[in-house]
Amino acid sequence: MNLKPKAIFLDMDGTILNHQNKVSIHTKEIIDEVRERGIKVFIATGRAFEEIEGLVPPGFQVDGVVASNGMVGYAGHEVIFKHSLSRELVETVIQMARENKVYYELFPYGTPRMTLKQDQPYVVNEIRDPKPESVGMNEWLSRKEAIKEKIVWSDEIMGDEFSKFYFFARSKEQINRWKEELEQLKKEIDFTTSISTEHNVELMVANVNKATGIQQMLKHFDLSETETMAIGDSDNDLPMLRLVNYSVAMKNAPDSIKEIADDVTDFTCDEDGVYHYLKSKLML
């Protein structure tokens, strides 16, 4: 690829988001410049669509968003595609999470994330200080913010359509045990899981990931994978990085991500790595 893509997909956490969970003004400006040159820019994130506005600078714009690890796609506020977890799966998983005392957030479409009120004590207890050393600061800050003001503590499951579950544990041992429980459940109800750190796991509809979302977004915009670049940093980016024609890993990505990428940024997410990469490669 001669680095003249027609579309660029950017991960958020660890990529355009720094470890304080903010997108810098420099990143916004380079995205504006790239789009002015006729290249379409998309977000491809594990986060829910509703989370994005609070993380980006005023006036931040992209051509589309693949959210919740491929569960839903937007062009502006128009829904391009959407998948939903079944009510049966939601009820089963919440019961299992309670039995295992696993921190969870359920994301209904169109309303704030929720956790059942009866589970609040052990969920809040998982986010007690001090921060475990192996937990990333951006994930810890997101959980602190969630329990303080983002989660709706509900008496019952609200809504009919759900984009994903997010699970977290203070210890790697606990989250790994939970992953094993989910693998057992997959034998009864099919679904997909995705991991972005050593302390979390997310749950989506079967056979859905960032790559499937990107394929649907490209189809909507009449673009092909051969014209596409993606930048990411973690395991949930692997399907996306393998799909596109030119893949870029962040400097702060683990070696397992860098090894499958075509290139690696010279700077980390805390050093405006995406800004410097796009500036040096596309603004010649």
Describe the structure.
- It is a single chain.
- The protein is an alpha/beta fold and 284 residues long.
- The protein folds into two domains: 151 residues, 3-Layer(aba) Sandwich (Rossmann fold), CATH 3.40.50; 119 residues, Hypothetical Protein, Haloacid Dehalogenase-like Hydrolase, Chain: A, domain 2, CATH 3.30.1240.
- 34% of the residues lie in helices and 22% in strands.
- It has ten helices and 14 strands.
- The strands form three sheets. The chain has an eight-stranded mixed beta sheet. Strands 6-9-11-10 form a four-stranded antiparallel beta sheet. A two-stranded parallel ribbon has the order 7-8.
- Strand 3 and strand 4 form a beta hairpin.
- Helix 1 runs parallel beside helix 10.
- The chain is globular and about 55 Å long.
- One of its GO terms (cellular component) is cytosol.
- Keywords: Coiled coil.
- Pfam families: Hydrolase_3.
